[in-house]
Design a protein that fits this description.
With 326 residues, the protein is an alpha/beta fold. The longest helix has 24 residues. Bound molecules: zinc ion.
């Protein structure tokens, strides 16, 4: 009978090391199973860049688009705000003219407005374009003066200045060829009152061939001015010409308020009234139409030549014109 042998001490130590080693190996192999290798992924996250890790879990397009493509609303505000701020001071210094229509060639017909009174008055320049370009130059001088001295307009008056009724003729040439509009029409023969396509040239301007248009108010410049006048209630009107014939009172037959306005202006100016009678039989005139059809006291004023604006004289005339009462 074998005596129960006690295991030697060194064997117990060896087996103990073996068991610990096997258990350790077991844990080691358990960790190597891919589906359970959570520590492995943790180490990957720790060593790789955060963008690579987060990329699969986030939609790159939705994340990047707001940064790359500007917000439309944000863009709108950024663009319009500085424009609006720049616009305000410039309008305070020089309000833009109102455009009442366009010429045959598409040039704007610009009207400048001064004052806020109930009595409306109108000055028209450049009806004969480049041939009478100095009337447009005068209008520009008056506009500039009125910007600097708005007090020239009485409190009860609103003044409108149409600086060039025939901008196409003004752009064409500062000579006889600049008189008519782009259709070859003399605009001061195109208004719908005693209108004629052709007229007896005896005593009339006859340097080049012109017509009164294919019909009364056939031209866009004419209809634009007619519409503008119809929308207002003008108490007086000046149409500037050149040169040298004096002041013409509108109306056919003579219109007493136009005659009174012409005389009042003549009293304070170098221009003659009654004017030089050349024997011309006028037809389709702006001031005749305005006086006899619209009942607006109206005068034609001829500057003294084809180059000067007679600014001083016409500044005095402006004062008479704005304070004149029918
Ligand atoms: Zn003229």
């Amino acid at each position: 009978m074998a005596k129960k042998r006690k295991m030697p001490k060194f064997l117990m130590i060896v087996w103990g090391i073996n068991i610990i080693g096997l258990v350790g190996l077991g844990f080691f192999l358990w960790d190597k199973i891919p589906t359970r290798s959570q520590p492995e992924q943790d180490s990957l996250q720790a060593t790789d860049s955060p963008t690579l890790v987060s990329a699969p879990s986030l939609a790159p397009t939705t994340y990047l688009l707001p940064t790359v493509t500007p917000n439309p609303r944000g863009t709108h505000i950024v663009v319009t705000t500085p424009t609006a701020f720049e616009y305000v001071p410039s309008t305070l210094q020089a309000p833009p003219p109102m455009v009442i229509g366009y010429s045959v060639m598409g040039r704007p017909l610009e009207v400048y407005k001064f004052g806020h009174g109930a009595s409306e008055r109108l000055i028209v320049a450049g009806i004969h374009g480049g041939y009478e370009w100095n009337t447009i130059a005068l209008a520009d001088e008056l506009i500039e003066e009125l910007y600097v001295h708005p007090e020239l307009v009485p409190a009860d008056v609103t003044l409108y200045i149409l600086r060039a009724l025939n901008p196409d003729g003004e752009a064409r040439a500062h000579d006889r060829t600049g008189r008519v509009n782009e259709n070859g029409v003399d605009l001061n023969h195109n208004f719908p009152y005693h209108w004629k396509e052709e007229w007896d040239r005896e005593g009339c301007w006859n340097y080049l061939a012109t017509t009164g248009g294919v019909g009364p108010a056939s031209e866009p410049e004419t209809t634009a001015l007619i519409n503008f006048i119809s929308l207002h209630n003008f108490d007086a009107l000046i149409s500037y010409h050149s040169a040298a014939l004096g002041i013409f009172a509108g109306g056919m037959p003579p219109f007493a308020p136009s005659d009174d306005l012409a005389q009042s202006i003549a009293n304070k100016s170098p221009y003659a009234y009654p004017p030089v009678n050349t024997g011309c039989d006028y037809s389709g005139n702006l001031t005749d139409w305005a006086s006899s059809v619209e009942g607006i006291p109206s005068v034609d004023i001829e500057l003294s030549n084809h180059t000067d604006t007679d600014f001083g004289a016409n500044l005095r005339i402006l004062s008479v014109f704005l304070s004149w009462v029918r």
